[in-house]
Amino acid sequence: MQFFTGRLFVFGVVLSFALMASVTAGCSSRSSPPVPGVASATAANALAQVQQAIDAADGYTLDVQQTNFILPRWGGADSGEVQVSRHGASAKATLKRTGEQDATYAIFDVGTATYFQRSTCPQAFRISGDNVSVLAPYMLAGTVRIAHAANASVDGSAIRATLAGLGPVVIQVDLHTHRPMVITGRNGSGPVVWTFKQWGNVQVRAPSPVAGERGPGGIPC
């Protein structure tokens, strides 16, 4: 009788441990469901997915909020709108020039040339020289700037990284499409916020008439 009771006690202990292990495993699987998209990817994979999504699009339109953001061969630019065509082949922007709040500037990157037109002028001008891409910082398509961003880490639907031309940023990503929704960073004058407000076909043509070549400084008319 004592032998039987001892065996029954051992069997009960083993069964209790088995039940506890099963319950613990079940709770663990329920409390940590797999998260789709960027949240379950490594940082490198997440950046690659975002770059591929941008490259696959027919273009995008950015709402840019910034102060004295330095553009190559241009200088400081404030807030406005930027449109970038498929693969970053061309771009157009309407921005305020830092220090000139009474007008806006339309800037056109077409082929190897860049043109600009002040809202108070009837004609446009070409910036001297070829391969002058004033809007290059906004051209994320057709490049590897997102894919090769440094110091990347993933936090849910956000990627923290260092982006060439902008510095440390947070990229908010749509988990279903892998497209970026908002890129936030800072420059020496304050926050920089680029919101992807529209995806789709973007066509950019050179302005007309073009009065000639000149630099962007000063009031052209």
Largest sheet at a glance?
13 strands, mixed
- Look at the structure and give the mean pLDDT: 83
User: What is the number of helices?
Assistant: 2
Helical amount? 10-25%
Q: How many separate structural domains?
A: 1
What is the second-level CATH architecture?
Clam
- Spell out the helices and strands N to C: HHEEEEEEEEEEEEE
Corresponding CATH superfamily: Lipoprotein localisation LolA/LolB/LppX
The N- to C-terminal Cα distance equals 110 Å
Overall spatial form = globular
CATH class equals Mainly Beta
Radius of gyration: 27 Å
Number of strands: 13
CATH topology, by name, is outer membrane lipoprotein receptor (LolB), chain A
Given the helix and strand composition, which structural class is it?
Answer: alpha+beta
Low-confidence stretches: 1-37
Which band does the percent of strand residues land in? 35-45%
